[in-house]
Predict the 3D structure of the following.
Amino acid sequence: MTTVSGGETATGEAEREARDFVGLLASAGYAEAETRMDDTMKAALPAEKLAEVWLGIESQVGPFREVQGTRMEQSGDYTVVYVTTAFGTQTLDTKVVLDATGKVAGLFFVPTAAVGAGTSTSYESPPYVAADAFTEQEVTVGTGTWALPGTLSLPKGTALFPAIVLAHGSGPQDRDESIGPNKPFRDLAGGLASRGVAVLRYEKRTKVYAQQMAGSADRITTKEETVDDAVAAVRLLSRRPDIDPRRIFVLGHSLGGTLAPRIGAAAPDVAGLILLAGAARPLEDVILEQTTYLLALLSGLSAAERTSQIDEMRAQVAKVKDPALSVDTPAGGLPLGIPAAYWLDLRGYDPPAAAAGLAMPVLVLQGGRDYQVTTGDYDLWKAALGGRADADFKLYPDLNHLFMTGSGKSAPAEYEIASHVAAQVVADIATWIDAH
């Protein structure tokens, strides 16, 4: 391993590329930054996720001030450049990993003094998980081209168990729905299996088959991203001799909650839907609200800069709503660079109305500190379903989007603090399933 410090050297090109990449993040050039990444990184951190990460860092340590220097290491075929980046209250090393072609293959933020020291990201089960109450089996969801690896958490015993399929939020999620050190789906699986409910979680298609899906990104809709695989997971459970086929539920978180009515419509024998922070409004409106909220957290951003970025997002949202939108509309001018086919698929989709049209029980859960999906969405679910005897609602004032406890104004950096899904959420879900 070689280390280089300072300015222009024979390795200056890699250092310049890393500096430029950080500069794009600092100037909100997330779409351009995405073009600098390799295919795996594009799938894992598209422009919208880059924005969340960078804005989250700034909300935690203050606005970007300057790049103070670089250090470089060579590790096999990869070049690792540490860009020492000064923020409002702290200096961090932005670790930019470049592949042999100069594409960004990794992005990390570490305290400057911690370079090379490493950090622990080991998972510890929450107290409500009784490891001796269940076993875990590796399973495969679906068959053929899009088969997905998964884990079934199965209570011990000989009874026919009720079961839950976990449907992910947006992005290329793993089976635990890992976000920073947090694993909300793993928490739910262990907690519910400890209470006698089998739980199936699996890798999302956009994670396992990122490169294959990138090749047809202009044709992908929520059907390919989420719905088809959730239905395949339901079918897998229904064929197992240890699962009660009459008591298979779907739990959707975030985007998974928004799409839960579509999953229920495609699998009408599902026993019920559980929605955790499911948006009830058009996705483009939710994105605009999130953008406005995140920009308001940045104290170092001028009013003019904030207004400019919000206006740009408003213009992109207007294109989604424009009747002239077609599959040929360039993705670059649409929110988060998502292709038109995706937006057209969601046009006219009213999640609460869709849920109201299904003959199955619904449980809606919402965190009061959630800025990504808000209590406004929760109120829309209640308005559509509140008159039904088989619809139940739970609002947790202190919980965020991950259903983890916190205080004050929620921000993306909060997701980097190790925590667990609140015990009351697990208990409420288990109690609701027992009642159905």
